[in-house]
Amino acid sequence: MRSMPCTEYHQTKGRGVKRALTLVAVLLLPWLLGGCESAAPLVATPPPKVSPELQTNYQYALSLMKSGQDRQAQAALERIARQEPRLAGPHVNLGILHMRAGRWEKAEAALQKAIELNPANAAAWNHLGIVLRHAGKFEEALAAYQKALSIRDDYAIAHLNIGILYDIYFQKLDEALEHYRRYQSLTGESDTQVAKWIVDLERRAAKPENG
Prior knowledge:
Helix content is 60%, strand content 7%. It contains nine helices and two strands; from the N terminus they run ββααααααααα. The longest helix is centred in the N-terminal third of the chain and has 15 residues.
């Protein structure tokens, strides 16, 4: 469905419905080295200009990530972060690499650093939400997803992630449906699994309280 998915399945009590929490590693393009993914007004500072050599090195790091060479990608991104410490993008991708390896505390630290450098980085907020959800910090995860969507309302995967959070962890069916539908509209309704979730939630939402 998306490049580099990491999927977790959750069994909810009483109804046996599975939801797949798709953790999508959004690879920032070279011109987004600063991590500024939105034209929204929340931009602390503009991303610094970078040299063509650094752009090339960043492209190479992304290619390593895409091909699953995570250790080499991590080393490359860490070098870039040392060379240009003002850039948020390398820290987002380092966070993604730590997530993929199950290093959740390091992932959170990297994503928090990215947000410190650029509070308008929607990808950093979305992935921070994933980390917080994994830690059982559901209210904080919700706030992180909401922040991502306040920066970029057309961020499809953030709509999916917040929809799952509302569905599974908060049992707020109306809110979950809203975000699942928004995700489908943004992705051309191509996700058949989410389409099934929508049908399931619509059926459950229509049931009387007494069953």
